[in-house]
Amino acid sequence: MAHAPTTPPRVDPARLAAAFRARFGLTPRIARAPGRVNLIGEHTDYNGGLVLPAAIDRACYVAVARVETEPADEAIGAFAFHLAAPDLDADLRLPVIDLHQGPLWARYLAAPAAILGMTRPVPSLAIMAQGEVPMGMGMSSSAALLVAGALAVADVAGVKLTPFEVATLAQRGEREIVGTPCGLMDQFASTHGARGCAVLLDCASFEWRTVPAPSTAAIVVFESGVRHKLAEGGYAKRRSECARAARATGVMLLCEADAAALPDLAKDPVLQRRARHVWSETARVREAVAALEGGDLRTLGALMTASHASLRDDFEVTCAETDALADLAQSTPGVYGARQMGGGFGGGVIALVAADAVDDVIAKVTARTGLPAVVCTPSDGAEILA
Ligand code: GLA
């Protein structure tokens, strides 16, 4: 679906706090959680493979305060939400037991508290959110919203969580309350991001480390005009194909095997292509880390471009618009490499661009598409603001 270009304005947390006080008469705790880019490692997270995302300098902010006036506040499962989303001009009061019937925006806001409330006492809460992560561009605006919500709600409820627990709480909210069968990459990048760095995560062991991002190249995300929606079925279908390929290979997670097992899948060419993407992509992440650490941006760019071809030909999650946009970016001087980013079937194209060519590249590409580009700076992960 084509849509109007939208790069949201920056959020001012002080103004969010003022709007919260004006609406609810309460002073909130505010959490900030960034969106992410993914340099390489697409559709590998839920297969136990490697990913290389980075938190970015665009975030969602969630303001939360305890509402003292509700009855039965502290009983498990008996709390209520007062929700507001100024960007949507939406406002709602909802008991947690009715959350599944609530509108989608309300489920996004309330999901972390609903999950936390399954096992711990959670008070009734006022929640207001604002975001500056572009939506539908593969930059994980929804994960940012849920991570910020998880942090703020845990803080107000007096529950101490590690960054990993915050990430998994947000992921459970997205899977169980919003209904998107996502992996953990986006939430993990949002909670573990570090300024100037990408995050190398092994999605089988959850071992991770930072890898310095290139200092002589910029990360630019171009909008394709096709909004991707994970909930729409293509993503879930790929997940189940990967699960079937894993079973046929005799492993639990596809990345417990590797390309040596390709002949095992010869009877089902579709599953063979899906597995070939996952295995080649995880290998590319390994090579990309070596290239990054060796300062070899040409190789890193070539790996990103190869990732797009694999997403297009083997995993079949690109579309005409992102293929054309990736081709355009790849053939623009100053671009090391480019590929579709995120869950697929649209969204944004991430390009690695020589720092001194950024303005020129953006001007050339956006002149052809008429759609915006966002320069992303690898940034720190989620935090509670003072
Ligand atoms: C979405 C999901 C992630 C991951 C990517 C594809 O962003 O939320 O968990 O699976 O798609 O790499």
Distance between the termini: 40 Å
The stretches of 5 or more residues where confidence is low (pLDDT under 50) are 1-5
Number of strands: 12
User: Structural class, please?
Assistant: alpha+beta
Rg, rounded, reads 21 Å
Mean pLDDT: 94
Q: Assembly type of the shown chains?
A: single chain
Q: How would you sum up the major sheet?
A: 8 strands, mixed
Amount of helix: 25-40%
List the secondary-structure elements in sequence, H or E.
HEEEEHEHHHEEEHHHHEEHEE
CATH architectural type of the domain at 13-207: 2-Layer Sandwich
Highest CATH level, the class of the domain at 13-207: Alpha Beta
Number of helices: 10
How is this structure best described in words?
The chain has a domain at 13-207: 2-Layer Sandwich (Ribosomal Protein S5, domain 2). The chain is 38% helix and 22% strand. It is built from 10 helices and 12 strands. The strands form 2 sheets. Strands 1, 2, 3, 4, 5, 6, 7 and 12 form an 8-stranded mixed β-sheet that branches. Helix 2 crosses helix 3, helix 2 crosses helix 4 and helix 6 crosses helix 7 (269-293). Mean pLDDT is 94; it is low at 1-5. The protein binds alpha-D-galactopyranose. Alpha-D-galactopyranose binds at residues 42-43, 45-46, 140, 182-183, 185-186, 230, 342-343.
Structural features:
386 residues; alpha+beta; four-stranded antiparallel sheet; 10 helices; globular; binds alpha-D-galactopyranose
